[in-house]
Amino acid sequence: MALITEETIRNEALHNIAQQIMIAARTAPKGKGRDTLYISMADGETIERIAVKMEEIGERENAHFFNRDAGNLRQCPVVIFIGTKILSGGLPACGFCGFENCSAKNQYTDVPCAFNNIDLGIALGSAVSMASVYKVDNRIMFSAGRAAIELGILPADIKVIFAIPLTATSKSPFFDRK
Questions:
Q1: CA 158 → CA 116, 162, 167, distances in Å?
Q2: Which terminus, N or C, of the chain has the lesser number of Cβ atoms within 10 Å?
Q3: DSSP secondary-structure letter at 3?
Q4: How many whole angstroms separate alpha carbon 166 and alpha carbon 168?
Q5: Which of 93, 98, 132, 124 is closest to 112 using CA atoms?
Q6: How many CA atoms lie within 13 A of 16 on its CB side?
Q7: Half-sphere exposure in the Cβ direction for 112 (13 Å, CA)
Q8: What is the pLDDT of residues 81-115, one digit of tens each?
């Protein structure tokens, strides 16, 4: 019998766990029972492209947390993306988006429906909860989601995106960050 070390199976295990996390996000409850979520994962060269874009945004916007997060991303063999479309719920008397009703909101097609973002938040919570079950280091990142939008690597109708990078090392790169 060959000796198999944790180091030799770590990336494959993280990919398998990422799949479980993606399912947890998909099955999260949704307002009005409507699914507007898009869930995917990236690895390898795609992660590097995203990290480079994050650094570019950090410099352009003078938002240095993008650079810090890019460094964290590079330490992760897999990154999950969870995003949502912007589709009005068609609910009467809601107004959670800040407009009187969906008809008024629909005049501004890039303004998210509150329910889309609420559903996204619930899915993100379910995802990181599953990562916790597997004891996988993770962090929800707006910055990597913003970079994915600018790179156009996800469908164009997915307008709000967050990333969850995953890693399993002796020290989490997301702890004691500067």
A1: 11, 11, 25
A2: N
A3: -
A4: 7
A5: 98
A6: 6
A7: 17
A8: 999 998 888 888 889 999 998 889 999 988 888 99
